[in-house]
Specification:
The complex is a heterodimer of chains A (292) and B (226). By secondary structure, chain A is an all-alpha fold. Helices cover 80% and strands 0% of the residues of chain A. In chain B, strand 10 and strand 11 form a beta hairpin. Classes of the chains: A mainly alpha (292), B alpha/beta (226).
Chain lengths: 292, 226
């Protein structure tokens, strides 16, 4: 039996936003930001899974931690807030540098997954060094835990306005090339033969994914983007077999989980919303263990 | 590949050769996806101009692929901007007898059904030249019969190139055989190429017999002797 989750997801998202607006106004802009970032990341998720980039998507999550710490350190030095657009710009720049490092290591003769693993190993060392640097020099102005978990409750209209152009840009690739990219994953040779350009789309996808991750880090923290790049696509593959419906279903899974996480957080304030999103998505996956 | 020159027009060409001879590479060259030395002409069109008329039919579907049969067939025609993409996909699915299965996941098709869906996809996208890459290798006997029946029907009005390890084929199927081993070793009518002395140029062991079914051929290539 086919299950369409788009309409329930839209209703749940509206209900959560309405609840936040009228009953918990402090959570309204954080929820808007969480919803928007989760939707854009989830739009990339089926694309990452279809091109066997799950490991790379997860690596993006790890690179964000290093990049966010490096960006926070730079911003602390010049006394700029971590919610301002220079933060997103710096995170994006560091993520791109780390992606280029994977390509550079690959040129030494390693396979892509090995090169990714090598760069991730270096990143872990860099992350520890950056954590100590933050604690030693800027302990009063930068909270490393917030970089890992996201600020969430501190998100305001200004933060959403700073995120919006980055998120809008990041949504262009899945919106306009998503179906073509998913099709190219089925048969790259045929796709090339009919004029699609899978290699170019791979590069555009990597840029788009980096942009989505960088613009979500202030709200989601540096770990959850990796979850949102993998889980919604995995859930979508359980609920639909249609290429055209894969991205809407993945985004709907994210919207449903964010809405549920909002209500869970208002009931259980000790359960951080991004953690609740992960748990809800796990339940959605387990609710339909076999594909349609 | 070097010295690859041949011409085919409205005929069924069986592309044969030992493992590693470059059969799939030849298809990539025909699709202009790989460089090659030589001149390949199909239906009197040579080089880059013919590429959008060529429909490639792969051997297998990658594991974990998304999509319904309808999307598998229809979307390439749509991507190519064909105004009648939906009608072409409908017609192609009817031709290969998969119209009733159009809402099924393409990953759930049997080997023979997948080959027929890939042929429908190539036809819908405007391919009146078909390149079939080892279509018989993952197909059960029933699927093989259905596929051969379809190929007989399709070969009436289009050029088909099919790679195969198997040279035992019904005599009414192939018009020509292109024997390759990193270059063209022999190209001609079936009776001219399916001879033990010609096949011995690329196969270590060859036994050949002509029966009421067609040719029955046992070979063992130089690259992978038992």
């Amino acid at each position: 039996m086919r299950i369409r989750i788009e309409a329930p997801a839209a209703l749940a998202a509206l209900a959560a936003l309405g609840h936040a607006y009228f009953a918990a106004p402090l959570l309204f802009w954080p929820l808007v930001s969480l919803m928007a970032t989760s939707l854009v990341l989830a739009m990339h998720s089926p694309l990452a899974l279809s091109r066997r980039m799950t490991f790379l998507a997860h690596a993006q999550g790890h690179s964000i931690l290093t990049a966010a710490l490096a960006a926070a350190l730079v911003l602390a030095a010049v006394k700029t807030a971590a919610s301002a657009w220079p933060f997103y710009g710096l995170v994006l720049m560091f993520v791109i540098v780390l992606n280029l490092a994977v390509l550079a290591v690959g040129r030494l003769g390693y396979r892509e997954d090995v090169a990714t693993g090598v760069v991730m190993s270096l990143q872990i060392s860099a992350t520890i060094a950056l954590l100590f640097a933050v604690r030693m020099f800027y302990g009063a102005s930068v909270d490393p835990i917030a970089i890992i978990t996201g600020e969430y409750v501190l998100v305001g209209l200004g933060d959403v306005a700073a995120q919006a152009p980055f998120l809008a840009l990041a949504s262009l690739f899945p919106l306009f090339y998503g179906v073509r990219y998913l099709y190219a994953a089925i048969d790259e040779t045929f796709a090339e033969a009919i004029g699609l350009r899978p290699k170019l789309m791979d590069n555009l996808f990597l840029i788009s994914m980096s942009l989505a991750v960088a613009s979500s880090v202030y709200t989601l923290g540096s770990l959850m983007p990796a979850v949102l790049l993998v889980m919604p696509g995995a859930i979508a593959a359980r609920y639909t077999t249609s290429i055209a419906r894969m991205i809407p279903t993945s985004a709907s899974a994210a919207a449903l989980s964010v809405a549920a996480a909002h209500f869970i957080y208002t009931l259980l304030p000790w359960l951080w919303p991004s953690a609740a999103i992960g748990l809800v998505q796990l339940l959605m996956l387990l609710a339909k263990p076999k594909a349609t | 590949m070097q010295d690859v020159s041949f011409a085919a027009s409205r005929e069924f060409v069986l592309v044969a050769g030992p493992n590693g001879a470059g059969k799939t590479t030849l298809f990539m060259a025909i699709l202009n996806l790989l460089p090659y030395e030589g001149r390949i002409c199909i239906d009197e069109e040579c080089g880059r101009e013919r590429v959008y008329r060529v429909g490639y039919v792969p051997q297998i579907l990658p594991k974990g692929s998304y999509g319904t049969v309808w999307e598998y067939v229809y979307l390439p025609a749509k991507f190519r901007g064909l105004s009648d993409a939906a009608a072409r996909a409908e017609e192609a699915l009817k031709l290969v007898d998969l119209h009733d299965a159009k809402d099924r996941p393409v990953a759930a098709l049997s080997g023979g059904q997948f080959q027929r869906a890939s042929i429908a996809r190539a036809l819908a996208a405007g391919g009146d030249v078909l390149l079939l890459d080892e279509p018989l290798s993952n197909v059960d006997p029933q699927g093989r019969v259905e596929l051969l029946r379809l190929l007989r029907e399709l070969k009436r009005d289009r050029t088909i190139l099919m790679t195969s390890h198997e040279l035992s084929l019904p005599s009414d199927l192939a018009d020509k055989i292109l024997l390759i081993n990193r270059r063209v070793v022999a190209y001609g009518a079936v009776d001219e190429v399916l001879r033990e002395d010609v096949l011995a140029k690329v196969y270590r062991y060859v036994r050949l017999a002509k029966t009421s079914y067609g040719y029955v051929c046992v070979t063992e290539d130089y690259a992978h002797p038992h």
